[in-house]
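Pilot study result, target chain (639 residues):
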Amino acid sequence: MKLGKKVSKRTWKRCLVAILSFCLCLGCLPVTASAKDKQDVKEEKTEQKISNKAVMARSYYPDYATEEDKEAIEAAASLALNKEETVTINSAGGKNWFSFTPNETKTYYFYSLNSNNNGEDSDPYGALYKQTTNGIYECIANNDDHYYDYWTSLRGLDFCIGIDLEANTTYYLCASLYEDDLTGSYDIKVSDIDPTALTGEVIGTPEQITKEDTPYQVLLESSDDDKWFTFTPNESGTYYLYAESTTDTRGSLYEQADGVYTYLNSNDNNYCDDVVHSVGENPYDFCIVTYLEAEVTYYLRIGFFGEPDNGNFTVKVSKNNPYTITNSVVGNPENISLNETKNVSIEEAGAVQWFTFTPSATGTYYFYSKGEEDSVAGLYSFNSDNETYNQMVWDDDNGENLNFNLAMNLNANQVYYLATSLLNSYDTGSFTVGLSTNPNAYKEDSPQPPSPDPSDSSTTATTQVKNSTKPAQTAGVPATGISVAKKSIALKKGGKIKLSTILTPLNTTDSITFTSSKPKVAQVSQNGMVKAKKPGKAKITIRTSSGKTAVVTVNVKKNAVKTKKVSMKKKLTVQSGTVRFLSYKVNPKQSTDKMKWKSSKKGVVSVDSNGKIIAKKKGKAVITVKIGNKKASCKVTVR
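Predicted structure:
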């Protein structure tokens, strides 16, 4: 703009906008900011940038490669079969690309090994892409921690992508890091031999378990040690393979064919299966419940989860549930009344103190504890048919502290048995236990309401609060119905899922059995764990002892089917004590991605791995389901 020249209105407006913007920017800055303040702001911005990149690094890879990725793909280093290549990640979110063109059509394995992050283990992540006919690079498989639960020969954090590839087709591997490991290095390899497979060289010479219900000694020094046993059952049936220890044990079961040992089942903490845990037993002992074929040799691998407190323990195999409770265990329990508290003193490690309660009215009752110890409780009913006590519901922490708050709908004039102890079987200590109809009674100085009115229908239960593979039982009441989360599910070969059920009515005495129409396609254990063996379809029949059935069709896929969308109802209001499955939709229906459920407040609403919720007390909780990379949430209000 020259002096003396007339300035247009448009130019003046532009100048005015620029001046105003500059003034606004000055107003946003701290006028008296010190050098330290400026440095703090700079560091904060730098940390935010790093944080954003870290989020990118630990995000799952996109369904399709970006434009930036395409440039790296064009310069991808070539992978040769069974030859190691190095991945180096120098910055957050960094990626290394590799190409591989197989000569034969068969299964190949892309996996990481020898990971190093400044002397510490890093967490590799891998994704495999294939170019489509329109030039787009589509993700066809990805993996983070291979099959960690399978306890294979790979390190737990290594990825392993096993996939069928076509001959003379080029595939692209994107290798990076997951979680907080922003930089580091590791090696990768592609092979036609499964790197997770165990061989006889690894196993050595196992000790034979020749007698059932007989303890076999295990002596291990560290978490890196393990011991192998073999067991060949004389009869087909459901077996319990379990440890008796004072530490945190872990077991995995395998079968052998052509020198390769294939994973079948595993367990870390027995209470995770609900069906086998009993108050007073060490909840950190493993217990594998599975169906075994006669005259087939199985291989049991035993070790620790974490560093052991005591490396000397025993292991047993039995056809009998080791956690069955009988009269000799319960003894002479003390009576507890409504709105009463009792002192519990665990003077001997592993001891249990029992109580009985007979409600005068049907309704929801809360058994709770107070104290500084990590207490645990289980509620049981007596089955006169076999004179055993069957667990109805179990609780450790109510979602807020170390005390339990066990909620259950109980029938009038029926006797119930409460077992109380400490979570750690090697601890001793004392606490108080109380009984109330107030869901907040576990809180300090909470008022106690009067006993429920039997005529008040609002306290009448409509469904059972806890219904796992061993439902609440009392003498002589058959089940009138059985429901499952989904009537059809899809799994990739090698995948697994535990089925959940809900039985009605509340006080059924029925037990449940699981059978598969094609065990070679989909194998199911007697605690409802389904394992996909090979491509095909199998029907899992869940049958109550009174004859009620539900059928779940399992479609085992050869290749993974990725989830594109998950949806569910946004809001739901239920009554305290309600048990139901949350309804959800997944697209495509045959998605094989793993499903995870989470509750924001377990003490209000708990949720299991199939979306079965238990409304425990008044309040609000957000239930989130994540299938693959997609997720949906439902806000549940309990009244």
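One observation from the pilot: Confidence is low (pLDDT under 50) at residues 1-13, 24-60, 271-277, 446-475. A full batch analysis is planned for the follow-on phase.
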